[in-house]
Amino acid sequence: MNRIWLRGFCVVVFLVSGLAGTQVLYGQVRNAEVVAFYNLENLFDTIDTPDVNDFEFTPEGPKKWNSEKYSAKLGQMALVLAQLGIGYNEDGPSVIGLCEMENRQVLVDLVNTDVLKNRGYQIIHYDSPDERGIDVALLYQADKFQPENTVSAPLVIRDEKGEQILTRDQLVVSGRLNGEKMHFIVNHWPSRYGGEESSRPFRKEAALLTRALVDSIMATERKAKIVVMGDLNDDPDNESVLKYLKALPDRSNLEKGALFNATGPLFEKGQGTLIYRGVWNLFDQMIISQSLLKPKKGQYYFDSAQIFKEEFLLQQKGKYKGYTWRTYVGNSYHGGFSDHLPAYMVLKKK
After folding, report:
1. How would residue 30 be classed by pLDDT, with cut points 50, 70 and 90?
2. Tens digits of residue pLDDT in 53-99
3. Distance (Å, rounded) from C-alpha 289 to C-alpha 224?
4. Is the pLDDT of residue 52 over 80?
5. How many domains does the chain have?
6. What is the mean pLDDT of the chain?
């Protein structure tokens, strides 16, 4: 255990030093805005909340989750978020979609960490009915993005017995990014627990809901600039994304109403955000409406999408060298970050 804590401490020191150095290196970089998404992998507090299946993340639970580990987790998540896209904007992402946090309070603790507290992040969060109590949320820098409307859209799905599966709502936030109207939809689609094939219908329903939300926005704002982001638990080439969400990886051949999967070309090149049995999946996706592909003077347009795959987020030795460095593997504490890598996209103005 002491070796694990020492490694985590060294990483924190290294990252704080590196972060400061990077800001000096890039200087006043303000010609772009960064939009990011990160699966925080079980950011739970240490309290056993009634009617929420969170006992494993308590001091008495099998993971022996305590204040020291919680504090370390917050610090590591904050360090990652602080570095996303600072080569394009030294202030970091103006908007961040998140999933796998237990409640609003853990987000309050996150934005008040030493690394993030001067970034001015505000929180949009609703409690979802997920049986483990995990939610989706949006962080935004209030001096750049001003929300005008927020909706938590419930995903109602049932199993083969007709019983409702408790899962995450989908968060829709509309507002103005430096004065320009933008819409963000944050997702965490149902997992592949029980098998990819048997759980496939659940992600189909999630995709249909996301598509309905996109269509609803476009019905009142034909040229709406929409960003769909999240952990979809499917790859860009799965039918939930291609057929039902209508998010395609080829921007040169988009039919009317189709979305562009900005992370799709990365997947085609073999990149991913999580690894399973030696194979990279790209579940954490950034998807945009076609209006963001058409540069107009003084308006934001899509520049690029990237996966944040830094060495400090990966295991450096052993059988699983190159895999994501996780907080836990089973009930064994590893002191890492997340089983997912973050994805982000860059918006520029012509």
Report:
1. low
2. 899 999 999 999 999 999 999 999 999 999 999 999 999 999 999 99
3. 7
4. yes
5. 1
6. 92
**Residue 286, by phi and psi: left (phi above 0), alpha (psi -120 to 50) or beta?**
beta
**Amino acid letter for position 228:** V
Q: Is the pTM of this model over 0.90?
A: yes
Identify the CATH number of the domain in which residue 151 sits: 3.60.10.10
Whether 136 contacts 98, CB under 8 Å: yes
pLDDT for residue 140: 98
Contacts of 37 (CB under 8 A, 6+ apart): 96, 97, 98, 99, 186, 229, 230, 231, 284, 285, 286, 342, 343, 344
Q: Which residues contact 155 (CB under 8 A, 6 or more apart)?
A: 167, 168, 169, 170, 190, 205, 206, 209
Q: Do the Cβ atoms of 294 and 336 come closer than 8 Å?
A: no
Could you list the residue range(s) of the whole structural domain that residue 174 is in? Answer: 2-349
Q: At what angle do helices 2-26 and 67-83 cross, to 10 degrees?
A: 20
Where does the pLDDT of residue 106 fall: very low under 50, low under 70, confident under 90, or very high at 90 and above?
very high
- What is the longest distance spanned by two Cα atoms in the chain? 59
